[in-house]
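User: Hey, quick favor. My workstation is busy. Could you predict this chain's structure for me?
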Amino acid sequence: MRTSSICGAGLCLLLGGLAGASLQSALAAPDEPPAVRPAVEPVVAAGPEYSRYHKLDRFARALAIIEQYYVRPVDGDALIDAALSGLVADLDPHTNYLAPADAKLLLEDTEGRFGGVGLVVTLRVEPISGTIADAEEPRAQPQPPGPTATPAAPTDEPVRLVMYIDDVIPGGPAQQAGLVVGDRILAIEGKPIANFSDLGDAVMIMRGEPGTKVSFTTVHADQAARELTVVRAIVDPPAVEVRWLGEGLGVLRLRDFQSASARELRDGLAELRASAKQAGGELQGVVLDLRDNGGGLLDQAIHIADMFIADGVLVRTRGRQGRLLDEARAQGPGTVRDLPLVVLMNKGSASASEIVAGALQDHRRALIIGERSYGKGSVQAPFELGGGALIKLTTALYYTPDDRLIQASGIEPDVLVGPLRAEYTDSRPSLQPERANPQHLEPQDFGRPPVPSDDAQPSPARTEAGEDAQLLAAIDHLQAWARVSPGRRTRNR
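Assistant: No problem, here it is.
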């Protein structure tokens, strides 16, 4: 029986997988630190009177009775799958039985390559008129598998279930077909979304052999529905998106924790350094964007935390009664020590994202900005059952280096910032400043940089950030960091 650590939450599906529920990678580069070993406590020996066969006897009798006497013929394999699903249904939301097709989907997600269309989607409910009923979350919250969706506000208006496009993989088939973030999918191959048992079933239809076609009924904004055909292809989504802001600042957005995420993040850091050099300066600070990152491979979370932390514990794994099962420690060589770092999180940041943020926060290596994270801190290990099926079983809980429990607690940000910009309000609107007096003394700067006027243009970095309130807060803190840090260049806004 093979086991491996899973670190993720059922956030949204990268066209199908149970995104955030992932197998521990066996593809880590040889020069990277070793991953945490699968943490599963040994099974305690049962007493002499105990026998699992007594329990199995009841199951075997029930199965035989159903197969022999049920009014219509039944599929024995389907009965076994249903029974195994029921066996784990009452344990916890992240413990699941995966039939062979679902297990294959999970493996495809963790490997990061599959035949599909290149979308990140979630289920939502909207009125027939087409206005999203509840768009509070840009992506659905982590939730147990099943036909669940973002709830609609109470209304008498008829509603429909849609697949909301949260992200479009750059260069993928969906982008080439013209689909954009915010579009809604009403039907796949003519079948309404409400007719699928859950999001996973819909995704199974969307995935397929490269070169084959799949049809969608989609809606863009308030326009009329249209039919669209997309040609499936191998989707190899980048784990890291690199964005240069200017003024020595850059963003590394980590989509998820795939088998190559740590390598891509290091490559992205090198790309930002090259951009800073091309602009005639040095890299002054980096924003690590973990928003809506539902997790993935545990070993990649460890490698990424280790990239910025020189020594000490990165994450602990504890089992029953808080018993320490394992811990991962920083390895030291290659650590990025002095680069100012801000981590962005929101309620959609879960599992591996929380492990990274918690480690950076406990080691005082980064400032955490945004919202309290989701709080999915349990360890799932997959146990193979034969025939391609497996049980994804919760075996332990994750703790930060300071022994803070992540499960159901999440990571509290150092600076709480919501998704919307706060409107500026003058605290003393009736008080005119000195410069408003026609007879005020003109300032003499004596060669110093002039004080910016009220109507001065915002900095290039802030302009690049647009209306992203959390990213703007990160820029403010990084620029303030640069001003007060000894030996660092001062920038003017």
